[in-house]
Amino acid sequence: CKSASVTMAGLATRLVRRTSSWTKSSLTPCCAFSQATLSQRTRQLQEGLLKGERWALAQAITLVESTNAIRQHQGQLLLSELQLFNKKQHEQRHKPTMRIGISGSPGVGKSTFIEAYGQYLLNEGLKLAVLTIDPSSTITGGSILGDKTRMPVLSADPRAYVRPSPSSGTLGGVARNTTDAMVLCEAFGADVIIVETVGVGQSEVAVADMVDMFVLLLPPGGGDELQGIKRGIMEMSDLIIVNKADGDLRAAAERAKVEHQGAVMLLRQKHDYWFPQVVATSAIEKRGLDDVRSVMADFYKELSKDNRLGRLRAKQYKKWTWSHVHEALLRDFNRNPHVKTLLPNIEQQLEEQLTTPGMAAETLLKAYYDEHTRSDC
């Protein structure tokens, strides 16, 4: 058997051969797509997006989420053109779209907070897009739509757009095409994009690789029993919000605020130019939202210095690229007929503990690699 490293090298070689016809002219914008054109329907979506039409944004996101090869290609063509448009807009306005990630444990009030803060931003004259990563249905695989039903005001406001996307079991509940949807939201004219993630935990920090600012919502409780689940994600947070600071819980929330402010001082700093802030809010009473807005403004003021935001996003774009590469390879692997033929027998051996997961993986990869080697000869 070939080693796993040789096998993966073969997969990468196959990917290069497959895309070689796209890259004959070096370093042209959007290499793989520079000679292709948008279909009439995709062009209509582009025009609608640039006019700020919500229907166009909804259909464009559906397009980039499609697993159909032709529609996927059209989606990437659309994204390539809009990415260049967004870049020019940022250069002219000198005010990039704010990308905010919000996470927190179930029941902490994420959707209620986003509804309240979203209205606050709309009242400031800003345009808003909310991408909620919703748990997938175990029956259909689609989004349960729970978050959208909890944001009725934002969903009905023409200046805002709320889109639940199924997590589909991806790491940290971050849907596969959330990063692409953000590009579309920027072209739509959103001044602020909020990405709400599922639950809280170590894997949830995946969202930090697609946003400028990561916000963690915590309940008004405190104590050592919560520290185990919070430490990892607190280290990734730029702003910590103690929510539900109202009624009988207001005093507890203020105490928790002080405790958490002390706790973050002991954690490793994410940025050398920013120290995480802690604020207490009541989404129901709409209290503390001014503090949240002020902290976010200060954060972006720091990001605007020395091209920090540009460097941050460039690093994220590289990670997004490899995420797409990994998924494309996995999708091609799962569709391979030789892999499909071997898979039932391999799974049976695994169930009976007749082979190891490592050996099973190498066998499947070798079958995939050998099939492509024969097809290239």
Number of helices: 14
Strand content: 5-15%
Class from secondary-structure proportions: alpha/beta
What is the average per-residue confidence, as pLDDT, rounded to a whole number? Answer: 82
Radius of gyration: 23 Å
Going across the major beta sheet, what is the strand order? 3-2-4-1-5-6-7
Order of helices and strands: HHHHEHEHHEHEEHEHEHHHH
Stretches where pLDDT falls below 50 for ≥5 residues? 1-9, 18-28, 30-35, 137-145
Largest sheet: 7 strands, parallel
* Percent of residues in helices: 40-55%
Shape: globular
How many beta strands in the DSSP annotation?
7
What gap, in angstroms, lies between the N and C termini? 20 Å
Question: Can you walk me through this structure?
Answer:
It is a single chain. By secondary structure, the protein is of the alpha/beta class. It contains 14 helices and 7 strands. It has a 7-stranded parallel beta sheet, sandwiched between helices. Helix 1 runs parallel beside helix 14, helix 2 packs across helix 3 and helix 4 crosses helix 8. It is globular. Residues 1-9, 18-28, 30-35 and 137-145 have low confidence and may be disordered.
